[in-house]
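Can anyone check this?
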Amino acid sequence: MRLLIVEDDAEAGEAMTRGLADAGHGCRVVPDGEAGLAAAREGGFDVMIVDRMTPRLDGVSMVQTLRREGDETPVLFLSALGEIAHRVEGLKAGGDDYLVKPYAFAELIARVEALARRRETGAVQTRLKVGELEMDLIGREVRRRGQEIELQPREFQLLEFLMRHAGQSVTRAMLLEKVWEYHFDPQTNVIDVHISRLRSKIDKGFDRPMLQTVRGAGYRLDA
């Protein structure tokens, strides 16, 4: 799962990142509401953890803006303000849950994972977006900066898996099982070949590569 953390306290943000990474989740931390708004607009996040009181743009205003723009990514508000009126304000602004500081880290993880599950069991997702890369799951179309990219069926499946796990390192074993449905390593270079083809299609001609090789770990698609 990929998480966006909007937290102006660097120490708190680092602690959250460590704990969530230990639980198997990828995190991106930004220090204020303006940066949070920009990051959220790039897409690719499963849940956003937003501090209510952030510089430049407060968390409540940030979430209100995203909801007006149609962003339905689940939001967990964090705040030292625990009065009922504060909680109600956060939920009415578009928050899906509200956790008062100080909190137990196990509860934070449980709430985040519950929000992600709730989203998965909701409306069927028909589009994926990671930065400037967009995928239409119904039309089977992929575009980067509006430019259509032709993919073979297996390449499409591979990219879909990488987009659903954007920002996370995915291993060869994960790709073999989820994309090729192999529950063993066939000892071939099938993944390398397809990754190479996919990289040439989604990155060639653009100034910034998105498909990264993580040495000793696997691959990662970054916004």
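Reply from J.R.: I decoded it. Residues 105-120 form the longest helix (16 residues).
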